Each structure stands twice: as C-alpha cells, then as structure tokens.
Backbone:
C-alpha cells in the first residue's frame, strides 16, 4: 500500500506486517484423488493411516495432497463404501436440476463442447460505465488549518491550483472564526475542506497521481477502481470508462467512495483525542476511509436482448448528504462466442491447486482482470476427479451469493479445462490469520456471519461444502468474504440425505465423518464452529501435529476455552461443536444459528447486502495488485504450459457441457 509516512517522511513505525504467529501451517486436504468419493479400504488405511500428515507450505501442497490422499485415521473404523459417489460418469452425479450434458452430438474437435451451443444473443453482454465527475463530497472529520501545508498540497495537485485558492480559504476561515462557527480555530470543517483539497496529487519524486478520494465500482464481484484526474475532493473530475462482462442478471452496480487522507492533515489535538474513533484511527494509521456506498439499480433482466442506455449523463444522488455522480451507463448484448486461452493476457501466477494453477489474467476485449484456473484433463481423469470437477463448475455457475466467488466463464481445450472467476485479491483468510495470530471478537463474528450466509446459500441448493478452512476463504479488496474451491462439494444433498465419503481437511473433519457411518449437510456447521474457534484462538479446537492423535481428540476430548473467552461465543461454539449431528445447532436449518445471541446485534438483511463495512480492509491497490499472494507463485512466469496428453473421444465426451458464457443464469429468466 502507498505509504504517506514514507512520502512525507513522518517518524513513527508503520504497523508491522511480519508479526509471525505461532499458528499452524497450511493443511493438505483429504481429497481422495484416487477415488475421491469412494471410501478407503481397510488395507489402504493400514498402509497410510499411521503416518501423520505433515503440515506443508502452500507451494508443496500439490505433491503432498497427492501423497496423502485417502489416508484414513489410525484406529478409525473402516467406512462402508459410498454408493452414490463411486462413478466418474457425470450422469452419476445425481444432481436434480443441475444438468451436465453428455450429449451424443460429438464434434471431432474436442475444443468444441459435446453439447452443441448455438451462439445466442442477449444471454451475456457488456456493461459500459462512464463516470464524468462528482459533486458534494464531504469528510466526516475536520482537517488541520495549516496554510503552509495546504499550499504544498495545492501545489502538488494535478491541475496546479492557483494560490488564490489559499486566499479564498484564509478569508473563509476568518469569516467562520468571526461568526463563531468554528469549533476549533485550527481545524477546517470536513465539508469545507473538501472544496479546497485537491482530489489527486503528485508527490515530490513520484510520477503517479495519488488520489485523496477514489471510487470502486463493483459488478458481480468484479471491481474497478476509478481515480479522479483533476478537481477538488468536493468536485472530482474523472472522465473514466469502465466495462464489465455481464454473465448474470445482477440487479445493481455497487459504488463505494473512499478517501485516503494523509495523517499529517489531522490537527494534533484531533489525534490526541481520537480515542477509539474507528474513522480517525484509520487516518492516523494511513488507511483508506470508506465514505459511502451506493447501489445503482440496473435490472438487467429487462434488457438482455437489446442494447440500451440505462443512464444518460445523469446526476445520480449517492447519499443523503447531497453527494452525486454524473454518469452514463450502456448495456450491449453480445453474441456468445466460445472463449479460448487466446482471449486472455496472462499476467501473474497467483496460486496452485491439485490439478493446475490459478493465474491473474486480463480479458483482451473488456480489459477486465480475472482469476483463471486451468485444470489438466489428464490429471483429473487419472485421479477419478471428473465428477468433482464438473460439480465445481456447476456450483460456481449456478450459485448467486455475494460471499461466493462467481464464475464468469468456462471453456476447454483438448488438454485442459479453464474456469474464469472474479479475481479476489485481498488474500486468503489463512494468510491474514497467520500474520495476526488471531482475530478480534467482532472481526471473527463478521467473517463467521458472511460464511454462514455462503453455506446457507449452498445448502439452499442442496449442496454440502465439506471443505471450510481458512485456505479456501478469500478476502476481497474491501475485506468481505469470498468462498472459493468447490472441488469437494457434494451436490443433490437434501436436508437429511446422507453421504459417507471420507474427505475434507484433517483438523476440520466432523466426528460423524471420522466415524464413517454417513453424514449430512450438518457437517458444514461443525466446520463453521472449528473455524470460529480458530479465528478467536489461533488454532482449531482439537489441533495436534500428529493427525491420528488429532482425530482421537476430535472424537473424545472436551472442548476447552482460554480464560476470559466471550460467553456468547463460548455458548455458540459448544452448540456448533456438538458431536451429535442431530443435536448440533443448525441441524434444523441455518436460522437456528442466525438467532443465537452471538449474532444478536447483527442485521442479517444488511449483512447480505454487504451493508456492513468490513472490520479490516486488506491493502489492495486495484485489480492488478497481487501483493497479497504468495511471492513463490507471483514470481513464476505466467504461461499456460503446453501439454500433449491424449484423451480418447469417449473421455472427452465426459467433459461435455463444461463451457459457460453466461447462459445458465440469464436463460432462466427468458
Ligand atoms: N477467484 C480467485 N481469486 C484469487 N485467487 C484465487 C481465486 N481462486 C483461487 N485462488 C487462489 O488459488 C489457490 C488455489 O485455488 P483452488 O483452491 O481453487 O485450487 P484447487 O485446485 O481446488 O486447490 P486444492 O488443491 O486445495 O483443491 C487458492 O488457494 C487461492 O489462493
């Protein structure tokens, strides 16, 4: 993040980011790569079960995952073979209403999906937003009245404010003083200060403009940062265009306004009296302050077949305090052409999974930045993971939850499958938890609540997630949750349906899963409890370096809490971590958990609308910023490796229906 302290050479250390915690390493998950949803045999258990699963670094996860697959806990009874998840064939997936085609209409070219897809106009499109200028933005705190400092600031503005501005401010302050309207003669009230402070400045020695006010525009979890090119904070001039790929019928375009005020612009008395004021604390720590949010209504489903101008040079009121924005918004449907890797510029490697890598990419036509997950078909086939892989694509395309990373497109080549996802670049929750050791009560509550909504929306579609852990939870640029990695989801799991597959990640496994007598969707509420416990204390409740010992603890040990543990949190955890799934909180639906006193201060309606400002905003400088990803990945050259795997036509057929350019969501409304 840009550091004001460095630029203005202010003493006082910045918050250390390298405070290493003693928390655990990344944990390999027990995706049964050999027979992912089948159950390990007793032989396999004897062979592998006694070996502890060593913690691995994220970089070594791939190989470790493969090695540790299907390691059943020592001494844990053999599972009966799962009947419903043993076949690779997509038709055996058992997904009511979730169609994965295994069409007979095969083309010779496997890059063309088995399901013949006619180009359809109107099912996807491009949204273009032009932002011209804004008006009426005020600061919720005063700035120091220091003419010397303000002169320097004005001189470094993009449009070199004339010195007359300072004279104007001086006489205004004089008048305010005389009329007794100033609380503090050394401070300029926030709504007046913005009329003089430039919207963007060029600091000495820097070639870049640094915005003091900026906007983020978010559509379907893809965000663009809009910075002013000139003007004052009160009246910023943008003249910027941003385009968004539309593959879902989103109702709104979300606009958030932030300011980035250098702390030297606060008066010393304000700093001294800041106390726990969260806004002032942010400024003092050189963090961006969220000023306001606004949902611009689009109602795209009404326009999916035609080009339409939704707003024409319109001044849109953003808040009740009179701030407004002059914009034009156009929607243009596009003919759904098949995508290929050539439609993307590969920018950075940002992660690695079991079957391939995840890269930050730029879509060449709209210039939008996405995450592209490339999966090698041969690996998927050899590890009998076709069912899970197709399920992941289906879940991602169908789900519409603000806290789940949305799928924008999917396509395939002869050798690989590709998923194009919204790029979520605030870092894994794992990364933040490692750095900070544990989270505060309110921060843990916020993440737990957003995750609860994510799991609830999956359960509403009869999907069990099964793999909740900090490594699969990403933070977006604002600090909201985005759940990723749906490779272990189980579809078509109605309320009391049972499955017996042994999978997940050791420290998060529910007791009923370990016992192997089958489990229901209620396992997800156990993992939510484990995660809340880990966020509050730094480690999962039954953690042990030795995996078989950890399994024993999960089954037998009492739940212990550190001294001074919050009573509501304790009560919720005791209820979520009930070993009897029938008595576990959530067994009768998520509303039981939502009603718990731990969440009593929270409006779920507001939370679902992303209406709460996240307690922590990751340091993210726009979509290109990859600083929250492991340097081990980002330093790698981003290439789509050439592979020469041969797959028979019948195998290729099983990947039919993979391609997604937005039809599923929009078609259903037509
Ligand atoms: N949409 C995204 N935006 C940003 N980063 C992402 C996104 N999706 C995945 N990543 C990064 O890539 C990593 C690997 O992705 P993911 O977990 O989906 O792969 P996987 O093959 O399913 O992994 P696993 O081996 O755990 O199953 C994630 O941990 C995350 O850091």
Residues:
């Amino acid at each position: 993040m840009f550091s004001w302290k460095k630029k203005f050479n202010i003493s006082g250390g910045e918050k250390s980011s390298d405070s290493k915690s003693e928390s655990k390493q990344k944990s390999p998950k027990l995706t049964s790569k050999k027979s992912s949803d089948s159950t390990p045999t007793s032989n396999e258990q004897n062979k592998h079960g006694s070996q502890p699963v060593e913690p691995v670094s994220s970089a070594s996860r791939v190989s470790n995952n493969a090695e540790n697959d299907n390691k059943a806990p020592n001494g844990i009874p053999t599972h009966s073979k799962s009947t419903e998840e043993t076949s690779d064939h997509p038709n055996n997936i058992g997904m009511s209403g979730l169609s994965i085609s295994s069409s007979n209409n095969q083309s010779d070219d496997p890059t063309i999906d088995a399901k013949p897809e006619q180009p359809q106009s109107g099912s996807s499109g491009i949204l273009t937003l032009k932002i011209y200028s804004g008006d009426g933005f005020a600061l919720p705190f005063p700035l120091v009245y220091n003419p010397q400092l303000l002169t320097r600031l004005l001189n470094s503005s993009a449009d070199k404010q004339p010195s007359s501005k300072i004279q104007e401010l001086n006489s205004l302050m004089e008048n305010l003083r005389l009329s007794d309207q100033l609380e503090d003669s050394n401070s300029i009230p926030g709504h007046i200060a913005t009329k003089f402070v430039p919207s963007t400045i060029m600091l000495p020695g820097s070639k870049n403009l640094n915005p003091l006010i900026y906007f983020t525009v978010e559509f379907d979890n893809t965000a663009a940062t809009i910075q002013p090119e000139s003007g004052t904070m009160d009246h910023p001039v943008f003249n910027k265009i941003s385009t968004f790929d539309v593959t879902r019928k989103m109702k709104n375009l979300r606009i958030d306004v932030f300011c980035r005020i250098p702390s030297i612009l606060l008066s010393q008395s304000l700093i001294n009296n800041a106390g726990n004021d969260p806004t002032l604390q942010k400024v003092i720590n050189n963090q961006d302050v969220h000023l306001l949010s606004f949902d611009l209504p689009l109602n795209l489903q009404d326009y999916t077949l035609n080009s339409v101008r939704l707003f024409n040079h319109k001044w849109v009121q953003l808040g009740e305090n009179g701030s407004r924005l002059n914009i034009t918004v156009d929607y243009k449907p596009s003919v759904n052409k098949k995508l290929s890797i050539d439609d993307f510029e590969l920018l950075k490697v940002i992660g690695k999974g079991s079957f391939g890598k995840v890269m930050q990419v730029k879509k060449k036509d709209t210039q939008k930045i996405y995450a592209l997950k490339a999966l090698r078909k041969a690996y998927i086939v050899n590890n009998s993971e076709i069912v899970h892989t197709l399920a992941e694509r289906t879940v991602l395309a169908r789900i519409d939850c603000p806290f789940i990373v949305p799928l924008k497109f999917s396509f395939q080549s002869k050798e690989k499958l590709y998923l194009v996802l919204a790029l979520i670049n605030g870092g894994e929750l794992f990364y933040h938890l490692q750095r900070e050791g544990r989270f505060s009560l309110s921060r843990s509550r916020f993440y737990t609540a957003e995750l609860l909504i994510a799991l609830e929306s999956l359960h509403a579609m009869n999907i069990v997630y099964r793999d909740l852990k900090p490594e699969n939870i990403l933070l977006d640029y604002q600090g909201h949750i985005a759940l990723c990695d749906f490779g272990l989801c189980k579809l078509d799991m109605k309320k009391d349906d049972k499955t017996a597959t042994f999978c997940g990640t050791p420290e998060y496994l529910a007791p009923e899963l370990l016992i192997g007598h089958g489990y229901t969707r209620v396992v997800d509420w156990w993992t939510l409890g484990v995660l809340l416990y880990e966020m509050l204390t730094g480690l999962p409740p039954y953690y042990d370096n030795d995996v078989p010992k950890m399994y024993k603890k999960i089954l037998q040990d009492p739940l212990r809490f550190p001294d001074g543990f919050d009573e509501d949190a304790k009560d919720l955890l005791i209820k979520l971590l009930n070993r009897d799934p029938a008595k576990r909180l959530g067994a009768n639906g998520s509303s039981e958990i939502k009603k718990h006193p731990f969440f009593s201060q929270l409006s779920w309606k507001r939370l679902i609308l992303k209406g709460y400002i996240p307690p922590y905003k990751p340091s993210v400088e726009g979509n290109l910023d990859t600083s929250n990803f492991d340097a081990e990945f980002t330093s790698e050259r981003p290439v789509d490796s050439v592979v020469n795997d041969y797959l028979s036509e019948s195998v290729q057929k099983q990947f039919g229906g993979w391609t997604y350019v937005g039809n599923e969501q929009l078609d259903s409304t037509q």
Summary: The radius of gyration is 27 Å. Confidence is low (pLDDT under 50) at residues 1-23, 32-122, 665-670. The longest helix spans residues 441-460.
